[in-house]
């Protein structure tokens, strides 16, 4: 089986070890994996090119009917391939490691006989660097170039074998273990073999620093049990018991698998350059930690009772933004690093021919005034829920708020990272209000020290400005920015942050404007790209987070029937293992954009929480 760029995004599942994540297709091809971290270079990059850019395939030869599921509340993936001659079960997982990363894949013959194909194609540097490949014993200090005439082991067991295949390039090494190793074929390693009922073959790929000894192989059963148990116990800590609980749980797990377990950073997605417009230029690298997305993710986690994750992220935040408030960025690397230079990977043809393929994100240098509002809201919610205060949290917040007080009137690039002229975006101004509001409430509700009178005055000033310049009386809606009559889906967040009640006539008017102007086949666009505000060519598809925002807005406006109807449709867009991308094409019925997308999943959780609260309130009368 070969994988091409036409493999639908929804045909992928994600594996993760709280350091990085892999995408594996329905056909059994690991087409994307960055090592050792989310924001490292990829060694399997076929999703943005061809098999020659790296992949690890274990799948049936020929036609098969395939079903998949995650084992319990985990990211252990179980795939069953049914062919005309029999069926096999493939179990994939990434065990939690320390200084290494592993993908372990077990093949079990269920019935009959199935012909399987095995391809191991390693290309470091996002598919560009072809490694030096050898076959040797792990204990050997010396190795010889891989020889196709040397026999391979064919024991049908799950134990580590005497020989391994090693792929080395600079600081990186991958080692393939298994009872039957593939043979070299023009820069690839390939094999075909039959699996019969009762067979069990275990293969593993391990990454580690190339100057270190080869680590011991993981034993499959203990690692599988530990991984499933650890993740399922984490999921069981959720206190949410309302509607859509199954989808909420999976979304919480997605937020967790996109979190770095040691640093606390939360990436927006594990992929880069999966396009918003197939064949177009709207291709961005999301493998970084946006303060906004991470703050919103923490609000969702807090709403479901997760306090320790908030503490870990807060400590990451303190380290990442430490220094002069003027230097605060909108995004950082997983470890808090600040350098994210954007470059184009010209050697990759892109998903469905969508170019350029980008590594790094030039938006890192943008001014996005809304970000501090999201951070302040998340930290305020953490205090309300009893997260133990860190020594420097409030002093950091004060420094950031004091800086905002000096610069809040400046225009910015807005929530959507508009690469055009700076403007006074209404959503950004609302979030400036939210930042000052949470600073005031920190003093009023928690007795923290600060110039509260000045903050109250600024809060009132910002509010009046938004109501004067962000509201269009003729159209009866808030507008995208002060110089337009266009509407923007981000305006749906106005009641969610407390700027106005959900049933305020101005909020209701804005909801109607979104329904009139931004709905496409029943889903919500971010804004009209035809307005030219973003300065980019091409179109995009409905943004799933915006549709979940509309569910929340409906709920807060008392339109619970409309909220439920839209929520039912949205959760139905999840793929067969419960994952969502950034956008969705409702005409072609396919996912679009980077995948899986934290923004989509965190807004799913937020929408469920809002709807549950609204239904409970309506039942009380």
Question: Could you please describe the fold and organization of this structure?
Answer:
31% of the residues lie in helices and 21% in strands. It is α+β, with helices and mostly antiparallel strands and 621 residues long. It folds into 2 domains: 208 residues, Beta-galactosidase, Chain A, domain 5 (Distorted Sandwich); 389 residues, Glycosyltransferase (Alpha/alpha barrel). The strands form 6 sheets. It has a 16-stranded antiparallel sheet that branches.
Gross morphology is: globular
Mean pLDDT: 92
What is the radius of gyration computed over CA atoms, rounded to a whole number of angstroms?
A: 25 Å
Class derived from helix and strand content = alpha+beta
Instruction: Give me the number of helical elements.
Output: 13
Q: What is the fold named in CATH at topology level of the largest domain? A: Glycosyltransferase
* Total number of strands: 26
Largest sheet: 16 strands, antiparallel
Query: What is the CATH level 1 assignment of the largest domain?
Result: Mainly Alpha
Strand content: 15-25%
Q: How many domains comprise the coordinates? A: 2
Please estimate the helix content: 25-40%
CATH architectural label of the largest domain: Alpha/alpha barrel
- Low-confidence runs of at least 5 consecutive residues: 1-5, 140-160
Q: How far apart are the termini?
A: 59 Å
Q: In oligomeric terms, what are we looking at?
A: single chain
């Amino acid at each position: 089986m070969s994988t091409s760029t036409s493999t639908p995004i929804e045909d992928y599942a994600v594996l993760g070890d709280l350091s990085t994540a892999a995408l594996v297709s329905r056909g059994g091809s690991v087409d994307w994996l960055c090592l050792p971290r989310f924001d490292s270079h990829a060694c399997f990059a076929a999703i943005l090119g061809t098999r020659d850019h790296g992949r690890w395939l274990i799948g049936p030869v020929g036609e098969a009917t395939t079903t998949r599921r995650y084992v319990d509340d985990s990211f252990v993936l179980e795939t069953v391939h049914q062919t005309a001659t029999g069926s096999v079960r493939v179990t994939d997982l990434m065990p939690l490691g320390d200084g290494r990363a592993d993908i372990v894949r077990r093949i079990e013959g269920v019935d009959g006989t199935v012909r399987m194909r095995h391809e191991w194609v390693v290309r470091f540097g996002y598919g560009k660097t072809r490694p030096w490949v050898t076959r040797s014993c792990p204990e050997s200090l010396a190795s010889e170039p891989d020889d196709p005439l040397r026999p391979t082991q064919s024991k049908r067991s799950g134990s580590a074998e005497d020989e391994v295949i090693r792929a080395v390039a600079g600081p990186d090494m991958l080692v393939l273990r298994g009872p039957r190793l593939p043979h070299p074929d023009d820069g690839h390693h390939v094999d075909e073999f039959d699996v019969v009922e009762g067979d069990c073959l275990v293969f593993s790929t391990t990454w580690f620093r190339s100057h270190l000894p080869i680590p011991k192989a993981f034993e499959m059963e203990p690692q599988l049990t530990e991984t499933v148990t650890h993740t399922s116990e984490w999921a069981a800590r959720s206190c949410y018991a309302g509607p859509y609980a199954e989808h909420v749980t999976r979304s919480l797990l997605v937020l967790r698998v996109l979190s770095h377990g040691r640093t606390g950073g939360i990436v927006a997605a594990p992929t880069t350059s999966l396009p918003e417009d197939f064949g177009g230029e709207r291709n961005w690298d999301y493998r970084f930690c946006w303060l906004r997305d991470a703050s919103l993710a923490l609000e969702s986690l807090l709403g479901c009772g997760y306090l320790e994750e908030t503490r870990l992220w807060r400590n990451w935040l303190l380290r990442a933004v430490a220094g002069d408030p003027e230097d605060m960025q909108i995004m950082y690397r997983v470890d808090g690093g600040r350098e994210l230079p954007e470059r184009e990977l010209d050697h990759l043809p892109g998903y469905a021919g969508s170019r350029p393929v980008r590594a790094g994100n030039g938006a890192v240098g943008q001014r996005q005034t809304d970000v501090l509002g999201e951070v302040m809201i998340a930290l305020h919610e953490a205090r309300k829920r009893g997260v133990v205060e860190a020594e420097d949290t409030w002093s950091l917040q004060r420094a950031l708020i004091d800086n905002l007080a000096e610069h809040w009137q400046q225009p910015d690039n807005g929530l959507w990272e508009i690469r055009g002229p700076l403007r006074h975006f209404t959503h950004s101004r609302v979030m400036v209000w939210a930042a000052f509001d949470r600073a005031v409430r920190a003093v009023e509700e928690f007795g923290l020290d600060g110039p509260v009178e000045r903050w109250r005055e600024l809060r009132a000033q910002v509010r009046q400005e938004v109501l004067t310049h962000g509201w269009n009386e003729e159209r009866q809606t808030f507008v995208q920015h002060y110089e337009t009559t266009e509407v923007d889906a981000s305006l749906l967040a106005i009641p969610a942050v407390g700027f106005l009640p959900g049933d305020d006539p101005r909020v209701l008017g804005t909801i109607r404007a979104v329904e009139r102007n931004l709905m496409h086949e029943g889903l919500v666009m971010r804004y009209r790209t035809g307005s030219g505000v973003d300065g980019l060519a091409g179109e995009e598809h409905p943004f799933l987070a915006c549709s979940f925002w509309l569910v929340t807005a409906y709920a807060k406006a008392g339109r619970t029937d409309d909220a439920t109807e839209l929520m039912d449709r949205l959760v139905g867009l999840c793929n067969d293992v419960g994952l969502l991308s950034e956008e969705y094409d409702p005409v072609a019925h396919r996912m679009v954009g980077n995948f899986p997308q934290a923004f989509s999943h965190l807004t799913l959780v937020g929408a469920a929480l809002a709807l549950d609260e609204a239904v409970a309130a309506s039942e009380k009368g």
